[in-house]
Amino acid sequence: MRRDRGKAFAGHGVRAAHCPVVERGDDLEACRLGVGCDRGEFAFVAVLSFGPTFLVASGMKVESANAVVSATSWVAIPAAPLGAWLAQRTNCPSGMIMTCLLLASVAISCVAHWGGSWAWFVAIGLLFGPPGGLIMTLPTEVVAPQRGAVAMGVFFTCYYAGLGILPAVAGYLRDLSHSAASPLWFAVLLLLFATLSLIAFRVFQSRRRCIRAEG
User: Fold this and answer.
1) Which domain holds residue 54?
2) What is the DSSP string of the chain?
3) Confidence (pLDDT) at 55
4) Among 12, 100, 147, 185, whose Cα sits 20 to 30 Å from the Cα of 170?
5) Residue 13 has what pLDDT?
6) CB of 36 within 8 A of CB of 194?
7) Could you tell me the CATH number of the domain that includes residue 58?
């Protein structure tokens, strides 16, 4: 009986560990998640980096502009664990992420169109806090334990590569358009892209379950 169990376990492990389609899917999806997630994170970085210059261009004093934008990061810190707690209570992390990203895009759009205030930037910080930790756990949902190190390495490589490139793109758009609001509109587009990336991830996850069920 023990030998039969051992053979069954070994056979299952071979199928899971040596299926090239599954392994390529792990790495590819980790790459896609890294590319998609850094879009959402950079939107937050764009608000912190280009928000003060936008407010100054709108007529606010430098000291006041820096104080208003700094409120975004301060409120995002306690919002992160609060979002994780709410996601656990509601058992809907994807809904939490997409809701926060979409509402954040609306808030940034309002700032870019009508100008900033304490209320808008506090709201942006509260909305950016919850998705951060939840997004970082997504690769573990599709990556097999034996390939976790490789897939997470791919994920963070794509993630930080994007964070290095996108600020330069935002700055170039600002110089090209001669508008201080351009980086904020760019952030809105990136948030929408991050939301679509999450939807694509869930579709991939569903298809993967079907492949495993058939196998």
Assistant:
1) 21-214
2) -HHHHHHHHHHHHHHHHS-HHHHHHHHHHHHHHHHHHHHHHHHHHHHHHHHHHHHHHTT--HHHHHHHHHHHHHHHHHHHHHHHHHHHHHT-HHHHHHHHHHHHHHHHHHHHHH---HHHHHHHHHHHHHHHHHHHTGGGGTS-GGGHHHHHHHHHHHHHHHHHHHHHHHHHHHHHHT-TTHHHHHHHHHHHHHHHHHHHHHHHHHHHHHHHHH-
3) 95
4) 100
5) 36
6) yes
7) 1.20.1250.20
Round to whole Å and give the CA distance between 153 and 159.
10
CB 123 within 8 A of CB 89: no
Residues 6 or more apart whose CB falls under 8 angstroms from that of 69 comprise 47, 48, 51, 52, 55, 116, 121
Q: What is the pLDDT of residues 75-124, one digit of tens each?
A: 999 998 888 888 888 888 888 889 999 999 999 999 999 988 899 999 99
83, part of any domain? yes
Q: What is the pTM of this model?
A: 0.79
